[in-house]
Design a protein that fits this description.
With 239 residues, the chain is mostly helical. The chain is built from eight helices and no strands.
Length: 239
């Protein structure tokens, strides 16, 4: 679970700023500002979750966090090329609470069943697994985006059928517009029309690729939820 949690958190923090800059046209500064609510929420939530840990069932607390994390990933999978910064803030807040609900209990439970003389090694292994998940998550999500772009482009181009009257009428209108702008040069108008069509397809391909990547991050929360059923949360006494 530490590995998958590191995978999801780092992958999200890697993919989301790129999406905001490539698709939404945010500057690097604005993309960073959109991530600030997550950090603020986590700063507030971590101490509160630490207090709740001794009074609330560990599995319940983590289950709530996993549900919020899954919901936040689903919300991000609905992002489009017209998504605004206000639409981005809510998923960040939810995921900030989710990580707080998961990480604190997980770090504690991971060491509950470890003998005292092995605690240092166990803590190091737990941190290592989370960092390993972070590195692999970034690499895999980067590859997923490129993979989905190839697959989605092939699927969209397959559906560009000139026999479709709607596509044909709209493209004809675009050609007429560029024909007027290019001083009655039909060749130039045709070239500009196809360039515009390719640009629109490319934008849609990129959006869908990010949507599918966020969907896979939602699947990662389901994997952690399954692992939760096998987690032992009661301390064994060691002499």
């Amino acid at each position: 679970m530490s590995f998958v949690l590191g995978f999801v958190v780092s992958a999200t923090l890697f993919v989301l700023p790129i999406y905001m800059q490539d698709v939404l046209g945010f500057s690097a500064t604005h993309a960073g500002e959109a991530l600030v609510p997550r950090a603020l929420v986590m700063m507030i939530a971590f101490p509160l979750i630490g207090r709740l840990y001794n009074h609330v069932s560990t599995k319940l607390l983590m289950g709530i966090g996993l549900a919020l994390g899954f919901f936040s990933a689903i919300l991000m999978s609905k992002f489009t090329k017209v998504t605004g910064i206000h639409d981005i803030i809510l998923p960040q807040i939810l995921q900030g609470v989710a990580v707080s609900c998961i990480l604190t209990p997980l770090s504690t439970v991971a060491l509950l069943h470890v003998a005292a003389d092995r605690l240092a090694a166990a803590a190091g292994l737990n941190a290592f697994s989370r960092q390993l998940g972070s590195s692999i998550g970034i690499a895999i999500c980067s590859s997923l985006i490129s993979h989905f772009e190839l697959v989605v482009r092939g699927a969209l181009i397959h559906h560009i059928n000139w026999a479709n009257p709607v596509l044909r009428d709209r493209f004809t209108g675009v050609i007429k517009y560029f024909y007027t702008k290019s001083i009655n040069d039909y060749t130039t108008a045709m070239h500009q029309g196809f360039s515009q069509l390719n640009s629109n397809v490319t934008k849609q391909v990129v959006v869908i690729s990010y949507q599918k990547t966020f969907e896979w991050l939602a699947v990662a929360f389901i994997v952690m939820f399954i692992c939760l059923f096998f987690m032992k949360t009661k301390r064994h006494e060691y002499i």
